[in-house]
Design goal:
With about 350 residues, this protein is of the alpha+beta class. The chain has two domains: about 120 residues, 2-Layer Sandwich (Phosphorylase Kinase, domain 1), CATH 3.30.200.20; about 220 residues, Alpha-Beta Complex (Aminoglycoside 3'-phosphotransferase, Chain: A, domain 2), CATH 3.90.1200.10. The chain is built from 15 helices and ten strands. Strands 1-2-3-5-4 form a five-stranded antiparallel β-sheet, with helices on both faces. The termini are far apart. The relative contact order is 0.14.
């Protein structure tokens, strides 16, 4: 599906199918691309709607997610079923968790025209991973995350989500891609970061096996500031977590490592990682998780800090030759994740 396919007739059909419209019809649309240089697995179009008649509850605007145009990213979506995964998340998970999530009005979950028509949350402020997050923002995010994860913590409800995979296949090619990654982006890392990546290359199988044996829950996998919305000043709303296309059933602390390591400003994060982890852990316990110790949480954070390094390495070719914000985003992701893993001494976990 292309943004040119978003017509008044299509919007009317979508909102009627979703039970939002009954009699009114979209007459004219105003379209704009949101977050250029931010997302990779979808294009997000904000659509303002003018109707032929007034109808209570008819949204003045919506956002629509469609497939990216880049063939490499389309191929990744084909492999991961990212759009289908996110659609099922909103249909089957969103209503069961005590957190604010965007409303899904309508979705097309058949190839090749995957699309999602969703609530427009323009009143919220989008995060900017290049700018980076402050500690309180990270703490608030992991607290929200823990409320969702507690509902699906290592239980039958999680096992029932058999459409949600256990991994995103971004680590198996780490040894192969590490060589190219260092060639193009090694100058972003210090000697300790390069040493850590060199060692991890020989232990990807060990890492994956360790993760297989840990307690599992729903993991966002791409939890970074560009996928967050912050409420307006004075609002009682919480931080909103968007883009569940890569959700898996895995180690819950992965998301803590991803958002803290990749998005928090390093000078604020340094020495404070366990304080943020404690907020996540305490919220899990308050929400009813049992049999999971603080020592377990620390172990999982360090293990996850190794695992998240596979993301910038796997996707580094997207950033080769990039300019502007995309280049700065690649630099921020790479430098922050590796420095966070080094600060946590995650490499000491590796055998040998």
């Amino acid at each position: 599906m292309h943004q040119d396919d978003i017509t008044p007739e299509w919007i009317t059909h979508a909102l009627r199918e979703g039970g939002v419209l009954k009699k009114a019809a979209a007459r004219t649309l105003t379209k704009s691309i949101l977050g250029q240089g931010v997302g990779f697995l979808s294009i997000v179009v904000r659509v303002g709607i003018e109707y032929d008649k007034r109808e209570e509850g008819a949204p003045e605007s919506v956002v629509i997610k469609i497939m990216p145009e880049a063939e490499t990213l389309r191929g990744f979506d084909d492999d991961t079923h990212a759009f289908q995964r996110e659609i099922r998340f909103y249909r089957e998970v969103a209503g069961n968790v005590p957190m604010r999530l965007a409303r899904l009005y309508y979705a097309v979950d058949e190839p090749p025209a995957y699309s999602m028509v969703m609530e427009d949350l323009s009143a919220f402020t989008p995060g900017d991973q290049v700018v980076g997050m402050h500690e309180k923002q990270v703490t608030d995010t992991v607290e929200e995350l823990a409320r969702l994860q507690a509902v699906y913590w290592n239980n039958d409800a999680l096992r029932g989500l058999d459409w949600m995979p256990f991994i995103n296949n971004v680590s198996e090619d780490f040894p192969e891609k590490w060589v190219s990654f260092i060639e193009h982006f090694g100058h972003y890392l210090d000697s300790e970061g390069i040493k850590l990546g060199d060692r991890l290359s020989g232990y990807i199988g060990w890492k994956n096996k360790e993760i297989e044996g840990r307690p599992k829950t729903i993991v966002h996998s791409d939890l970074r500031e560009d996928n967050l919305l912050f409420p307006p000043p004075g609002s009682t709303d919480s931080i909103l977590i968007l883009d569940w296309q890569l959700a898996v059933r895995s180690v819950g602390a992965f998301d803590v490592a991803r958002v803290m390591g990749g998005s928090e400003l390093p000078m604020e994060r340094k020495g404070h990682q366990l304080r943020i982890l404690k907020k996540w852990y305490d919220t899990l316990i308050e929400e009813g998780v049992s049999g999971y110790t603080w020592e377990d949480a620390v172990y999982d954070l360090r293990l996850s800090s190794l695992s998240v390094l596979c993301f910038p390495v796997h996707f580094h070719d997207v950033f080769i030759g990039a300019e502007g914000r995309t280049k700065e985003l690649g630099k921020a992701i790479t430098t922050r994740l590796f420095s966070s893993a080094v600060d946590l001494d995650a490499g000491s976990m590796l055998p040998g």
